[in-house]
Amino acid sequence: MAVFFKCSLFYLLLFVCVVLCLVKNCRCKYEPTWESIDSRPLPGWYDQVKFGIFIHWGVFSVPSFGSEWFWWYWQKQKLKPYVDFMEKNYPPGFKYENFAQDFTAEFFNAKQWAEILSASGAKYVVLTTKHHEGFTLWGSKYSWNWNAVDLGPKRDLVAELGDAIRNQTDLRFGLYHSLFEWFNPLFLEDAANVFRTNKFPTTKSLPELYEIVNKYHPEVLWSDGDGDAPDTYWNSTGFLAWLYNESPVRETVVTNDRWGYGSICKHGGYYTCTDRYNPGHLLNHKWENCMTIDQKSWGYRRDAVLSDYLTIEQLVKTLVETVSCGGNLLMNIGPTRDGRIAPIFEERLRQMGLWLKVNGEGIYHTTSWRAQNDSVTAGVWYMSKPEQEAVYAFFLNWPVSEKLVLGEPFATEGKTVVKMLGYSEAVKWLPLEKKGMTVMLPQLSYSQMPCQWGWALKLTSVR
């Protein structure tokens, strides 16, 4: 009996060991090489949602002048507008660090932000946890007290917004993190050594990345700012292997391509290539167009004028073009130092939401069609839902003749049906000689229009 018990125990322990080994191997699927990291399939949710909101917020929101690169332009490049601004408005000897005391966020209401962001129709949010200035919006153990818990608001802004978004919306929460910091002495020392030393990433940047992933569980990790240092200096593949194998978000997290000099538009989960990237054609890799409503800055600017802000018509056009070519749109706003989303940004966000309530069917969960834009009529862009045998033709200008010529679809009389999103009745159409169709748009008064900034036709049974 004792022998039987010992044998049973042996085989039970052996079974447990085998299971643990299998689990470990499953969780260590990706090796710390770009070949392995790049083989990871992009989680499907990201391609389906199409539209997100970027938020640039930090100490740069205090001077709120010129650009979120204020510190660099003033202290390093000594650009005249920034130097003059400081000499005119601040005493001699004023340091950039002194701005932190005025980054107060006293009007920051995370629940209010979450409601506004949700109303935009976006499906994910990416918040700057730390820009190139090095100031963290959470109380990082590695920030040398240069953070929003020890200075300024004395609040964990990342946690507050993350909790509000997750508790009251269906948005996914993402975090931006800058790898380098302009004036951090450890980074400057490594740079002086031509990155043969790595004090900064091992003691500052990488520990921060592990910290925000473990603490806030972001589903987007938006890396930026390589400081001209290669990915080997940042140990990017080592970190990403951990992120994809062992982290609490290993199944759902998506990442971009900014993980060291030379990696952009080449490695990572999805490509950003350049700021405001909008190629106008299909790529063979998922990509994102990160862009700003304020055309001149990512952070809030008090010196902005109305013409600096993109109109809702321009934003809709950008969204349609981006999604048609297989990209996601990440549209940026810059809150104020006291925690407000300025009315101009709120208006644009709510306008996008109203437009997507009508036209979202042709944006969310779509795929690129065989043609991205029309060969006959300018300003027409296509998306598709193959499982519904549906093609969506977005047109950005309502023709005076109320006849819209589409040169791409092969339509079949008696089978093809055309409808306009937001309008209940079928729309009449006539075939062109070889391919294409002329759509007879309904005669609608302004108040009858389903929307005012671009429209979508749903074509079923076309090829």
UniProtKB/TrEMBL annotation:
Residue ranges constituting the Alpha-L-fucosidase C-terminal domain according to the UniProt record: 372-460
Fetch the Pfam families from UniProt.
Alpha_L_fucos (PF01120), Fucosidase_C (PF16757)
Q: Which keywords, in A-to-Z order, does the entry hold?
A: Glycoprotein, Glycosidase, Hydrolase, Membrane, Signal, Transmembrane, Transmembrane helix
| EC class (word) | hydrolase
Q: What is its EC number?
A: 3.2.1.51
Which range is the signal sequence, renumbered to this chain?
A: 1-28
Q: Which domain of life is it from?
A: Eukaryota
Provide the transmembrane region boundaries: 52-74
Q: Which GO terms describe its cellular component?
A: lysosome
Which part of the chain is the Glycoside hydrolase family 29 N-terminal domain? 25-361
Tell me which residues are marked as the site May be important for catalysis: 290
Keyword hit for Hydrolase: yes
Q: Which GO terms describe its molecular function?
A: alpha-L-fucosidase activity
Q: Which terms under GO biological process does the entry name?
A: fucose metabolic process; glycoside catabolic process
What is the reaction catalyzed?
A: an alpha-L-fucoside + H2O = L-fucose + an alcohol; a neolactoside IV(2)-alpha-Fuc-nLc4Cer(d18:1(4E)) + H2O = a neolactoside nLc4Cer(d18:1(4E)) + L-fucose; a neolactoside IV(2)-alpha-Fuc-nLc4Cer(d18:0) + H2O = a neolactoside nLc4Cer(d18:0) + L-fucose
- Fetch the InterPro entries from UniProt: FUC_metazoa-typ (IPR016286), Fucosidase_C (IPR031919), GH (IPR017853), Glyco_hydro_29 (IPR000933), Glyco_hydro_29_CS (IPR018526), Glyco_hydro_29_N (IPR057739), Glyco_hydro_b (IPR013780)
> Assembly and partners?
Homotetramer.
- Briefly, what is this protein's role? Alpha-L-fucosidase is responsible for hydrolyzing the alpha-1,6-linked fucose joined to the reducing-end N-acetylglucosamine of the carbohydrate moieties of glycoproteins.
The family line of this record is: Belongs to the glycosyl hydrolase 29 family.
Protein name according to UniProt: Alpha-L-fucosidase
